[in-house]
Amino acid sequence: DAGVIQSPRHEVTEMGQEVTLRCKPISGHDYLFWYRQTMMRGLELLIYFNNNVPIDDSGMPEDRFSAKMPNASFSTLKIQPSEPRDSAVYFCASSPHSSYNEQFFGPGTRLTVL
Amino acid sequence: QKEVEQNSGPLSVPEGAIASLNCTYSDRGSQSFFWYRQYSGKSPELIMFIYSNGDKEDGRFTAQLNKASQYVSLLIRDSQPSDSATYLCAVRPKLIFGTGTRLQVFP
Q1: What is the helix (H) or strand (E) element at residue A110, kind and residue range?
Q2: Do A42 and B97 touch (CB under 8 A)?
Q3: Cβ-contact B21, B73 below 8 angstroms
Q4: Where are the beta strands (DSSP E) in A14-96?
Q5: Distance separating alpha carbons of residues A19 and A106, to the nearest angstrom
Q6: pLDDT tens digits for range B71-95
Q7: Chain A hits for B32, Cβ within 8 Å
Q8: CA distances, A29 to each of A74, A96, B57, B61 (Å)
Q9: For B43, which of A44, A91, A101 is closest by C-beta distance?
């Protein structure tokens, strides 16, 4: 079975540009999580969805960040406008309802904002 | 005080030794505790989780939880060079991760 798929794997953009990160969770998983990882702050939960509905977005740093899950097989995390301090690795993870605690992480998107 | 704290390391142990990784947390309401392993440049993967005070064993790994003292630890027996990675502690229900401890196992 395919794991969590993220695209792009690397993104380099200039400050002020819009960035869209994409995630396809494992088929049949009910939960989807977006994380950001930096050396200074470690791994931070940004938002998570249950059955396509956002449950907790308290980790979203500011209004420049938005996330959507239009269907069970696709989610996006958008940053508009991007800033250099947004540079990080962004992970998407999913988990099944039956094993909510076991999160399967995607390979991550390394974002660099110049 | 950070909500979940880990010593960043590196923790260096010889092959075959026991590696002991520690994590403390501040929220007494925390209910469940997780250990993830992350190889350099890769994504985290779950090793094990624990809910109740005491020890939980899974192969070479043992998680230990002490809610009164608010710490959770991970012991790795018979450490192998392939265990060299960063180990992340996480607590629920807030899904907060520590910054991780880097473990180096040398031959």
Answers
A1: strand A109-113
A2: yes
A3: yes
A4: 19-24, 31-38, 42-50, 53-56, 65-71, 74-79, 88-95
A5: 18
A6: 999 999 999 999 999 999 999 877 7
A7: 101
A8: 12, 4, 27, 27
A9: A91
